[in-house]
Design a protein that fits this description.
about 350 residues, alpha+beta, Creatine Amidinohydrolase, Chain A, domain 1, six-stranded mixed beta sheet, about 35% helix, about 20% strand, elongated
């Protein structure tokens, strides 16, 4: 029994549920293989049913695994009809994926069924990755990394941030990505102080630090990586900030092992930056899980909870952002192993290899 199967069986038994209703496309894809853009999935101890409309009938029949297909004309009505036919009495549902309007409509049509809201109970369903999942993440990394190297010669003085970002995304698609994993970030000079700076028509200039955050989506799975580059010889402050972030990232990676708390891993990076006097300029968490969603558990931050386990994949991405000056962020993806962690992304983060 897989981790997810055990998690679901335990949850249903503990909460005395007859069935689970899944609404989010990531969980639906994870549980039955459907890759389309609309549907619902009902799971009981004996049955697995995927429901959608006529647009996806042939696709669903070709994709879904160990599940039957049922067609509806209207989603809420079709799901309610199916649940009644299954004689469900106590139904758990994804509260974070179902809109309040949809919940009210479903509740109205199921007066004899107790609807049990599930939030935290399903949060960790996909938290540990299997061999196939890790393989797809590796392939997404390969596509994104090769595409970054394709785009690197275009990152020179006078180039527009948006031109570089657009070219990188085009290359990812041509190399086999379903799409970029998220909108590519290219932020140069003072704009590097924006952690999520969208590319603009600003021209990259000599001596600029340039933050490039990019990722690809392959067979549903994502990569995520950030490089910070320097155009020309770095000055003393650029070296100082870059070295601090690099040491913070290294400390965090050394703290990763099964059983380590997510807060301890975050603190390992944050302490390096704080002791140097830049703590208030590192405002986000040290990392986030990745898989079918770009951001998923675990959350590596001062407010995160729990410990890491073998099979988890997450980012390690400390940063320093100085308003009016710029920023440095370095991000790699790691896989937690029995001995510690394996760094999945492989483009160098050493400063000497990031001077262009």
């Amino acid at each position: 029994m897989s981790f997810a199967q055990h998690h679901i069986a335990s949850l249903m038994g503990r909460m005395k549920l007859d069935a689970l209703l899944f609404w989010s496309l990531e969980n639906i894809r994870y549980l039955c293989g459907f890759t389309g853009s609309d549907g619902a999935f009902i799971l009981t101890a004996q049955e697995r049913i995927f429901l959608s409309d006529s647009r996806y009938e042939e696709q669903a029949k070709a994709e879904i695994q160990e599940a039957t297909f049922e067609k509806y004309k209207k989603k809420i009505e079709g799901v309610a009809r199916c649940l009644k036919a299954m004689k469900v009495r106590r139904l758990g549902f994804e509260a974070s994926a179902l809109t309040y309007e949809s919940y009210e409509r479903l509740k109205e049509r199921l007066p004899r069924i107790t609807l049990v809201s599930l939030t935290d109970q399903l949060t960790n369903l996909r938290i540990r990755k299997g061999t196939e999942e890790i393989g797809r993440i590796r392939q997404a990394i390969q596509i994104a990394s090769d595409s970054f190297l394709d785009a690197l010669p275009r990152l020179k003085s006078g180039a527009r941030e948006k031109t570089v970002g657009d070219f990188l995304e085009i290359r990812m698609k041509r190399r086999g990505a379903e799409s970029p994993g998220f909108p590519t970030i290219v932020a140069s000079g003072p704009r590097g102080a924006l952690p999520h700076g969208k590319p603009t028509d600003k021209a990259v200039e000599r001596k600029d630090l340039v933050v490039v955050d990019f990722g690809a989506r392959f067979q549903g799975y994502h990569s995520d990586e950030t490089k910070t580059l320097v155009l020309g010889k770095p000055d003393s402050r650029q070296k100082e900030i870059y070295d601090l972030v690099r040491r913070a990232q290294d400390r965090a990676m050394k703290a990763i092992r099964p059983g380590a708390s997510v807060r301890r891993i975050d603190a390992a990076a944050r302490d390096v930056i704080s002791r140097a006097g830049y703590g208030k300029f590192f405002g986000h968490g040290t990392g986030h899980g990745i898989g079918l969603a770009v951001h998923e558990p675990p959350t590596i931050s001062p407010r995160g909870s729990g410990v890491v386990e073998a099979g988890m994949v997450f980012s390690v991405e400390p940063g320093i952002y100085l308003p009016g000056w710029g920023g440095v962020r370095l991000e790699d993806l790691v896989l937690v192993t029995e001995q510690g962690c394996e760094v999945l992304t492989y483009l160098s983060k050493d400063l000497k290899n990031n001077i262009v």
